[in-house]
Amino acid sequence: MIIRVILLFILATNFAFIFGQTTLVTEGTTVKNTVSETWEGVNIPRRVPTLFTYKNNSITSSNNSGYMLQAGDEAPLSSNNNLDGEVITGNKLNWNGVNNSSVITHGLFAGYNINSLVKYNYLENVPYGIIFKSGTDAGVNMTFTSGGCAYNVLKNGKFAGRVKGINGVKFYNNTFYSGDGSGWYLLLITENMDRTHPAPSTGTKVFNNIFYSTIQIPMIKIESASLTNFESDYNVYWCSAGEPTFNIDGVTLSWTQWKARGYDAHSVIVNPDFINSTDLVPGARLDYGKNLGTEWQTGLSTTATWVAGSSPATSNQNGTWQVGARIYDLNMSEF
Asked: What is the pLDDT of residues 111-162, one digit of tens each?
């Protein structure tokens, strides 16, 4: 399978020199990394503009730094934007290392590209979950005009989602779960402080997600400058250790204080009663969502599993839109 992927890329790259763009599809591969220190991960070639799809693959590792899937850049480079519109779907990333304060392993990394579609993935124990990043030293960010992060299941780790110096990223119908006691926050939205003149991440949209934690960490942590055109609503929050909290500029806000800022007016604090902590299927329909249109109507089935080479089962939204990544069929109210 690996030889086939490499051969297809070589042929497509030669074609690109003539027509200006290549196509790369990586599908059905299984990667098991045994490096415990720094690993560059599955590092996607991006020296030319590429229509890239990473579909139904499996990555297992225990590296304490580096990446698991490196589908983008860390800084302004000539390869920036060469994976614009990349599709990363149906993959399983499983991290088996020991999570401590020194671990900085990036899971699904899509830096310095726009309009990425990250959908139907399952990340288990990945320290740094799904990361979108951009920003120049002059303070200019990239801006998403399509795509986003939808219907993913992210279990444990230091954070599930990260927006760092990039605008317009959508987080729709994800299940964010922190149950191992190592979480810092579930969703982090800031400027890219690595640049000389960083610019805030504006226009992030957060709808129809489940935020669940067994310890009292911020569900969303954001800088005030990044609140421009920020929207968060129709989510379900639950913290088994107390009321959900949030954080702006390092200051902890209660649920009441967060809502008083104008966020999550229609969101609720409800225990999703997951049937177990592996599948993270709610015990019953969670009809608290907002209709996000036909582009986003297909979610993961309650029976979806992740096997390399096969797509996880899906189910369409029906009736009132449900929150989270798993969607119950119309005639299936509970197990």
From this structure: 999 999 999 999 999 999 999 999 999 999 999 999 999 999 999 999 999 9
Which pLDDT tens digit goes with each residue over 209-262? 999 999 999 999 999 999 999 999 999 999 999 999 999 999 999 999 999 999
Reported pTM: 0.93
Look at residues 308, 262, 273, 286 and name the one whose alpha carbon lies nearest to residue 122: 308
Any domain includes 79:
yes
Structural domain for 114, as ranges: 2-179+277-327
Tell me the longest C-alpha to C-alpha distance in the chain. Answer: 60
Closest CA to 324 of 172, 139, 202: 172
Q: How many DSSP H helices and E strands does the chain contain?
A: 2, 32
Structural domain includes residue 190 = no
Q: 182 near 148, Cβ under 8 Å?
A: no
Q: How many domains does the chain have?
A: 1
Report yes or no on 150 lying in a domain: yes
User: Structure tokens of 10?
Assistant: 């070589």
Residue 63 counted as domain residue: yes
